[in-house]
Amino acid sequence: MEKPFSGFMMVFPGIFLIVLGVVVLIEPRTLVWLMAAVLVVMGVAMLMIGRVMRKFGARIQSTHE
Predict the structure, then answer these.
(1) 50 alpha carbon, distance to own chain's centre
(2) Which CA distances in Å does 19 have to 1, 16, 30, 39, 50?
(3) CB neighbours (10 Å) of residue 36?
(4) pTM for the complete prediction?
(5) Calpha distance 53→65 (Å, rounded)
(6) Chain-centre distance of CA 25, in angstroms?
(7) Which sequence spans correspond to the domains of the chain?
(8) How many CB atoms neighbour CB 39 within 10 A?
């Protein structure tokens, strides 16, 4: 029986985080760039979630009228 591909998908993030940790140990300035990237991605995600929630709320309001 063949192993599912999902097993690798669970291991990959762990390997990625270990490599990122080693890079930060070698070059600490990398941490500043990583945090900036995380904050930008989180900001964009919050805007997208807000947009979806507004559309969902408008759809709910239109069905109750």
Answers:
(1) 16
(2) 31, 5, 12, 20, 33
(3) 10
(4) 0.64
(5) 19
(6) 23
(7) 13-64
(8) 10
For residue range 6-23, list pLDDT tens digits in order.
677 888 889 998 999 999
Yes or no: say if 30 and 23 are a contact pair by the CB < 8 Å rule: yes
Q: Positive or negative CA dihedral for 25, 27, 31, 34? A: negative
- Token pair 């945090």 in the structure block, residue: 35
- Per-residue tokens: 60: 């709910």
pLDDT tens, residue order, the chain (65 aa) = 566 666 778 888 899 989 999 999 999 998 999 999 999 999 999 999 999 999 988 888 888 76
Residue found under tokens 């600490």: 28
